[in-house]
Amino acid sequence: MKELIDTFLNYLSVERGLANNTIISYREDLNMYLDFIEKSNVSILSKISKNNITNFMFDQKGKGIAVNSIARRLAAIRMFHRFLTRERILKDDPSTLIDSPKLWKKIPDTLTLNEVELLIAQPNARSAQGARDRAILETLYATGMRVSEAVNLEKDNVNLDIGFLRCIGKGNKERVIPLGKKAIASINRYLETARGKFLKNKESEFLFISRSGKKISRQSFWKIIKKYAKEARIKKPIKPHTLRHSFATHLLERGADLRSVQEMLGHSNISTTQIYTHIDKDRLKNIHRQFHPRP
């Protein structure tokens, strides 16, 4: 059965153009699903029933898997069975009548402007590593890029003269994002004082380089953010997308329109961007409670 997963994922990659990270997630989800099916003594795909899929979802819930993750796995299962039916590998699709678990929109954790300033101030820009790390933090907050996008950001896609960068996002969709003066200054300093030291006469198309002269990894980005958050004594939960969430929230708090923020974040659906408006409403409620004479 698992051989068909490769066929399906190749279809998603070549014909649907899905991002590599999405393909990796779908592979993990489907392997987990088929492992469960095999343990349920179902040895062939045509014997999979609606109950088998429902039982898999309840098994995931029992293991404490987040509802959003279960919903994503169900989406992968549905696409997989739809593909098998369309290719006439299966006659019937057992996933068609299954309801998706209800998704609860969780407001993402964000930093205050003061916390962002503290975080970005931590790297010692006089050292090569500090100059690079300061440029990374400034770029993430200035653009709202995903960590995966910043890791793959190419040097030639950054125009410091006019203050824009070209970002390749999910599904290979391209967007152009402005850069602020502080981000431009930090990137310039990194390019002038640090990047060449890391490369050691080698070449790389990527902007951010590890100390060994290779493209920096997502794990390294994550460690950098956590390290400086700890040094800044920020007690809030810090995640790879914390600066992205803060970027969007701070723009909307200061009057940016939702469509512009959607475009800069690279959201295909504006409803995804709207979650940040809930944060602003919570802030207004707190102000109202604090200052209104009859709260």
Task: Explain what you see.
With 295 residues, the protein is mainly α. The chain has two domains: 3-86, Tyrosine recombinase, N-terminal domain (DNA polymerase, domain 1); 113-289, hpI Integrase, Chain A (Orthogonal Bundle). It has helices spanning 3-14, 20-39, 50-62, 67-86, 113-121, 128-143, 147-151, 181-193, 195-199, 218-231, 242-253, 258-265, 270-273, 275-291; strands spanning 158-159, 164-168, 174-178. Strands 1-2-3 form a three-stranded antiparallel beta sheet, with no helix packed on it. It is globular. The model has no long low-confidence stretch (mean pLDDT 88).
Summarize the structure.
The protein is mainly α and 295 residues long. The chain contains 14 helices and three strands.
Strand order of the largest sheet: 1-2-3
The CATH architecture category of the largest domain equals: Orthogonal Bundle
Specify the structural class: mainly alpha
Helix and strand pattern = HHHHHHHEEEHHHHHHH
Mean pLDDT: 88
Looking at CATH, the homologous superfamily of the largest domain is: Intergrase catalytic core
Low-confidence runs of at least 5 consecutive residues? none
User: How many separate domains?
Assistant: 2
CATH topology (level 3) name of the largest domain? hpI Integrase, Chain A
Q: What's the total count of β strands? A: 3
Main β sheet profile: 3 strands, antiparallel
Distance between the termini: 61 Å
Helix content: 55-70%
Assess the beta-strand content as a share of residues: under 5%
Radius of gyration: 23 Å
Shape label: globular
DSSP helix count? 14
Query: What is the CATH class name of the largest domain?
Result: Mainly Alpha
